[in-house]
Design brief:
This protein is an alpha/beta fold and 479 residues long. It is 37% helix and 20% strand. The two termini are 35 Å apart.
């Protein structure tokens, strides 16, 4: 999708955003009869009012204030998603958006929801041309949109689309090697450095977690290191993003037992999509931050040489882990990456992973479970970014008792705890491999949709990218 300014005075498809408690600005934009119709429609609780002229279609969108700014902003995004459906039903190729609202940023929020809802993944549809949305361009008036917003929206849309594309690709086309190649392409386009370790290099580094999970596969693992380091970076110590890159998860020999439990497992690399899309956007936005992204990638298969429950793994850090469930593999690959991150002496490390069903069971598909040892100011900044983008965070405790649950009788740790607190015991496992400020984000409940929800389509959502990017864009201000 393209985003442009327009000086034209007339457009075949026009969207007018107006405060629902102040319709006066409409006097100059629509006729008296049309205004009467809008007032009547408003009294019938309509929020999107269609004015169908012979040569054009005007949509008057009423913006209502909710109980909080976060709720109001999200409602505006969802209005954009609703209008997206209307425009495509009319076969519109482009639409002009202008805002008469008193608040700043309304056009941006509306266009954000509209454009993200317009995303499609049609790579495997034989009738893709017929199914492709007609809408390709959004136009804006300069009095309701800034050049900075235009650039930011364009980059955000590209980054979200790339993350969603990665999650939507099946294993047959997105192996660990193909995932690393995708990162290289993103780096070349956006201007950040990408280094990929192959299986021989991973073996030489003795990354025991990654190698153990990979043992059941005939395909090699990869370890990708992405680095964006502008000359004007404000942070002397880098911010490191770590993303789980399990491109498919069968559960290994602890085969996933429940019906349809493997249907969405191509999305088990969603964490890697989040961090790669974020560093891609940060580079295009030219943020004055030194950022590194790490992705350990492999599949988890029950092949003939697969690791088994009862095995003891020596991790990259030197710690030993008793494997009691091969389906708790994500923490094993993440642990090696988190240990690797120590070499950078980072200011902050954040990891994103579809790590536990327990996180999804706890808060459903409406937020991200997080936990970590970062200072309270950093946690507040992350939660604020989550509220801004409506990618809300719920912090779980990391009490010592949860650590007791993963103590092993024969090794330093075991890779699962008991039947309760599974999201937290997974976090406590990762905690053993960090010695720096760190936050863990479990996106298991929000990474993939089985049905459309507002501006989040079926399939990969890229949930977490907007929150993390918001945090990074405000990071220098906080410090």
């Amino acid at each position: 999708m393209q985003f442009k300014f327009s000086n034209a005075t007339k457009h075949p498809y026009e969207i007018i955003l107006v405060d629902d408690k102040n319709l006066k600005p409409l006097n100059k934009l629509i006729s008296k009869k049309e205004l009467d119709y809008v007032v009547k429609s408003k009294s019938n609780e309509q929020t999107i009012i269609t004015l169908n002229r012979l040569d054009s279609l005007k949509l008057v969108v009423l913006v209502k204030q909710k109980k909080s700014k976060s709720d109001t902003d999200e409602a505006i995004r969802k209005l954009g998603a609703s209008v997206q459906s209307i425009l495509n039903s009319h076969k519109a190729k482009q639409a002009f958006i202008q805002s008469t609202c008193a608040a700043n940023g309304v056009s941006y929020l509306f266009a954000e929801g509209l454009s993200l809802a317009n995303y499609q993944f049609l790579n495997y549809k034989s009738d893709a041309k017929k199914l492709t949305h007609s809408l390709t361009t959004l136009l804006f008036s300069k009095n309701s949109f800034t050049a900075t917003e235009l650039n930011q929206l364009d980059i955000l849309y590209k980054a979200i689309s790339k993350a969603r594309d990665l999650v939507n690709e099946p294993l047959q086309t997105l192996t660990a090697t193909a995932l690393a190649d995708a990162f290289k392409s993103m780096g070349k386009e956006a201007g950040f450095k990408v280094t990929v370790l192959n299986k021989e290099q991973i073996t030489n580094e003795k990354m025991g977690g990654i190698l153990a999970v990979n043992r059941g596969s005939i395909l090699p693992p990869t370890f990708s290191i992405m680095e964006y380091k502008p000359k004007n970076a404000h942070n002397k110590q880098p911010i490191v993003l770590v993303g789980k890159g399990i491109v498919y998860d069968t559960g290994g020999l602890s085969l996933k037992p429940t019906p349809a439990s493997m249907d969405r497992m191509k999305s088990d690399m969603s964490g890697s999509a989040v961090v790669s899309a974020t560093i891609y956007a940060a580079s295009l936005l030219q943020l004055p931050l030194h950022i590194i992204a790490l992705v350990p990638a492999t599949e988890n298969r029950p092949g003939e040489n697969a690791y088994v429950p009862g095995d003891v793994i020596t991790m990259y850090s030197g710690k030993t882990v008793e494997v009691l469930n091969t389906d708790a593999e994500g923490r094993l690959v993440l642990a090696d990456a988190l240990h690797w991150a120590k070499r950078y002496e980072p200011a902050l490390v954040v990891d994103f992973a579809t790590l536990t069903g327990a996180a999804a069971a706890a808060i459903g598909d409406v937020g991200i479970v997080c936990m970590g040892n970062a200072d309270e100011n950093t946690k507040l900044a992350l939660k604020t970014a989550g509220a801004n983008q409506y990618e809300r965070l719920v912090e779980f405790p990391m009490w010592d008792e949860y650590g007791d649950m993963i103590k092993s009788d024969i090794a330093d740790l075991k890779n699962i705890g008991g039947p309760y607190g599974g999201a937290i015991t997974a976090g406590k496992f990762l905690e053993h491999f960090v010695d720096y400020p760190w936050m863990h984000f479990d996106i298991a409940g929000v990474s993939l949709n089985m049905s459309k929800k507002g501006y989040h389509p079926v399939g990969g959502t890229a949930y977490g990218v907007r929150m993390l990017l918001d945090f990074l864009m405000h990071y220098t201000i906080q410090k």
